[in-house]
Amino acid sequence: MNRDRDQDQKSINDQNQDRDQKQERDREWDFVDRGKSYRPEWAPAENDDAFAVRIIPPDNAGSSGKKIGSSIRRKPLDTQEYIDGVLSGNRTILARAITLIESQAPRHRSIAADVLNALLPKACSSLRIGISGVPGAGKSTFIERFGLELIRKGHRVAVLAVDPSSSLSKGSILGDKTRMEKLSRDENAFIRPSPSGGTLGGVAAKTREAITLCEAAHYDVILVETVGVGQSEITVRSMVDFFLLLQISGAGDELQGIKKGVIEIADAILVNKADGDNRHKAERTRAQFETALHYLKPATPGWTCKALTCSALTGDGFPEILDMIFHFVNLMQQSGFLDLRRKEQSVQWFYTIIEDQIKRWFYSNPHIRSKMDQLRENVEKDEIPATRAADEIMDLFFKIPQEEKFEKGEKNNG
Ligand SMILES: Nc1nc2c(ncn2[C@@H]2O[C@H](COP(=O)(O)OP(=O)(O)OP(=O)(O)O)[C@@H](O)[C@H]2O)c(=O)[nH]1
Ligand SMILES: [Mg+2]
Of 254, 356, 379, 404, which sits with the fewest C-beta atoms within 10 Å of its C-beta? Predict the structure, then answer.
């Protein structure tokens, strides 16, 4: 039964994903002159002759290709165009600005930093909500309804995803964009698929920056979705005001198998799918959570984690959820804790950025890279202990002359 459902879901996901990817491709080709090949935007700048890849736009991708001057590339935007576009709430430019900050190419970093620095003071004050739950808990269905409810109340809603595993599962949120069909069509909503690839740390740092861009585009509620796998929840907790954990009732002991750590960081636990025959079971699960919560330290001082039931399918429980969140915001604004949490999060962000940059500089240095390959082999073959190999690498790093420590284009580029 579950397998059938999973397979159906998988095939719907695949179809949605294909459709989404085609739309995405069509948008990409809107900026090029069809029939002519061009050098991709992501080609390494410092590798001009060695990099042989050229892209030939497909003939069947529609006929809306635009020739921009004599250029046959996707029209690049300058810093001011990014800034103006985001501030005016242009969703296409917002999406491109997020792609820019996610870019690993050194030459994109300086413009990304300029765009971010200009937009940071313009970011509107928003409510940031983390939403987590195991696959199939109903996150997409929940976000679709929840987002539309918020828009009905006059908010503008952005949905971002932190899911480092999505590069393996081919990014289910791409399919989600069509699954959250009403929400993605609403002009007051913006849905961003998860960044692909990279470590969780890197992905999370970019998500934090993407939040700022969305706030500059006047989205005043930011929903950050994560799949319930542990580490990503902790990371998302460090960038949101309120953290929602979606649960479903299962057979046997409901609390078994749910990581205590994830419950400990939640401000509310929602037992979803409380509809039809499942209603009583969901209520029992909710009561069990409520009991368990008495024994846990609250994630937010001055707030007791709530356990509620809801149905993302019928909308039951949604008015209570919205009331609860706005009550939380009022309380935390009065106590000053919301402000305090934001300040702590900014400091944490500061450290994360430094750590990311140190790592990037370190591992991209050609001296380090070649020595690393050799030492890794030595360690693998038990020729030298790992501690000595690490010491050798650090010694080498300190001996590299300052001007050779950074790759071309890396230094001063933020
Ligand atoms: N009966 C019932 N079904 C629901 C409810 N919410 C979601 N579902 C169903 O549960 C299935 C999974 O829902 P999704 O919203 O895709 O779940 P998800 O958490 O986003 O799943 P992943 O993206 O795979 O992590 C779908 O078939 C939904 O229709 C609900 O409140 N009641
Ligand atoms: Mg989903």
Answer: 404
Q: How far is the CA of 126 from the centre of ligand 1 (A)?
A: 27
Cβ neighbours for 190, distance < 8 A, ≥ 6 positions apart: 91, 94, 95, 156, 157, 158, 159, 214, 217, 219
Decide: 13 in ligand 1 pocket, CB within 6 A.
no
Ligand nearest to the CA of 177: 2
How many helices (H) and strands (E) would you count in the chain? Answer: 15, 7
Please check whether residue 139 is in contact with residue 225, taking contact to mean a CB–CB distance below 8 angstroms: yes
- pLDDT one-digit tens code per residue, 322-357: 999 999 999 999 999 999 999 999 998 888 888 888
| Confidence (pLDDT) at 297 | 84
Per-residue tokens: 159: 């949905």
- Measure CA of the first residue to CA of the last residue in the chain; give whole Å: 52
pLDDT, position 214: 97
The neighbouring-strand residues paired with 225 are 131, 161
Query: Which is the closest atom of ligand 1 to the Cα of 144?
Result: 15
Q: CB-based burial of residue 125 (10 Å sphere; 0-12 exposed, 13-18 middle, 19+ buried)? A: exposed
Q: Which ligand is nearest to the CA of 10?
A: 1
* Ligand 1 centroid from CA 313, angstroms: 8
In this prediction, residues 178-206 reach a mean pLDDT of 75
Q: How confident is the model at residue 18 (pLDDT cuts 50, 70, 90)?
A: low
Question: pTM to 2 decimals?
Answer: 0.76
Write out the DSSP string of 149-168: HHHHTT--EEEEEE-GGGGT
pLDDT at 359 over 60: yes
For 376, half-sphere exposure in the C-beta direction (CA atoms, 13 angstrom radius) is: 6
